[in-house]
Design a protein that fits this description.
One of its GO terms (biological process) is Mo-molybdopterin cofactor biosynthetic process. It contains seven helices and 26 strands. By secondary structure, it is of the alpha/beta class. The longest helix is centred in the last third of the chain and has 18 residues.
Length: 404
Amino acid sequence: MALMTVEEATSLITSGVTALGVEDVPVQAAAGRVLARDLAARRTQPPADMSAMDGYAVRGADIAETPAHLTVIGESAAGRPFAGTVGTGQAVRIFTGAVVPEGADTVVIQENVSREGDTITTTAPTAALRNVRKRGCDFSQSTPGLFAGRRLTGRDIMLAAAMDHATVPVARRPRVALLQTGDELVLPGQGTGNDSEIVVSNAFGLAELARRAGADVTDLGLIKDDLAAIRAVVARALSGEFDLVVSSGGASVGDHDLMAPALKAEGVDLSVHKIALRPGKPLMFGHRGAVRVLGLPGNPVSSHVCGMIYLVPLIRALQGDSRPGPVPVPARLAADLPPNDVRRDFMRATLERRADGSIHAIPCASQDSAMLSILSAADCLLVRPPFAPAGRVGDPCEIIPFED
Ligand SMILES: Nc1nc2c(c(=O)[nH]1)N[C@H]1C(S)=C(S)[C@@H](COP(=O)(O)OP(=O)(O)OC[C@H]3O[C@@H](n4cnc5c(N)ncnc54)[C@H](O)[C@@H]3O)O[C@H]1N2
Ligand code: MOO
């Protein structure tokens, strides 16, 4: 079977994918969710010219010379504006966040004023218009401030709230089911001490990736290498409770690799591929009706790397995320590397920041796709394109930092 490129595989999995649906959530619960529609401001901010400092609201022309003498005629505090107008030679005591009264256009900070009774004298120059936030300088009513497809940050929900949205429309969370197969697998703490046992780990990492990408995740547990047993769990996973079914293990060509036969027997339109990717050669993808199925390799590092490369972008695309893919960032090689072969290599590497600010990637000593101690100690994936020539220390390279 010819190897498929990673680009072809990514496109097979994510192209044409759109958001599953829309729901309104309280703005304070919207961080990490993908905005489903453009969000326009429901009000103008600031709603009036407002003071940025504690001091005195004056007419700028009145304080062109220092010292200037002015008469204090009232007070404007946040939430309690001054009702009158500031005339020539007059000032209003004002506090940060208060509306600048009619007639005034400048605020002199109180440190630059001496006061006696109702008379103030400026003690340092203040440029006209200083210390005033103009009406609408942040945003204006009806103008979009956040756009559909954006994964909302904590900063974004501050903006949404300030734009007066109590709820925001976000993409519904994709519902993801995880399956793990293998006669050798036992849950942590539940082994019998038999040397042929392997304690499961894949679903824990995949669940974490999927949740952080915005999915609701259900782990359907361990399944024995038995066609009927796998079919039973697959049938449940496909029954409409989930949007995406993700398996790990049984994706290769061994006699006990029963995931593909089970999925096909349950009516999944499945394609099985070998990808020019290291780690992560075997890959399955398909669907039954609206339910998508992604079959990842069993080797733990392979399953996790494929989770980053395929699963996370798919979950994001199912929310209409405008930036679904992992974003490589530039770094420099901290070790010589041999030329690469046909498989795109995602090497586990640690990162070192040098005194000049440059970031250097140090490939881990072993790149075995079963070694979780190495995956855990690494900071990033060091990307080596197919047929990359030998790399030298200091050469530019690309990395995909781990996000957790
Ligand atoms: N003749 C060939 N053999 C293999 C090929 C190949 O092209 N030709 N590909 C190799 C590659 S690459 C990979 S990756 C593995 C993937 O195989 P499977 O997806 O069928 O995975 P399993 O055989 O089920 O398991 C592999 C390995 O991973 C352990 N495992 C499985 N599930 C879990 C889990 N949930 N948590 C922790 N560890 C798990 C399992 O015990 C095995 O050790 O195939 C190569 N073979
Ligand atoms: O490429 Mo496999 O995915 O060696 O572990």
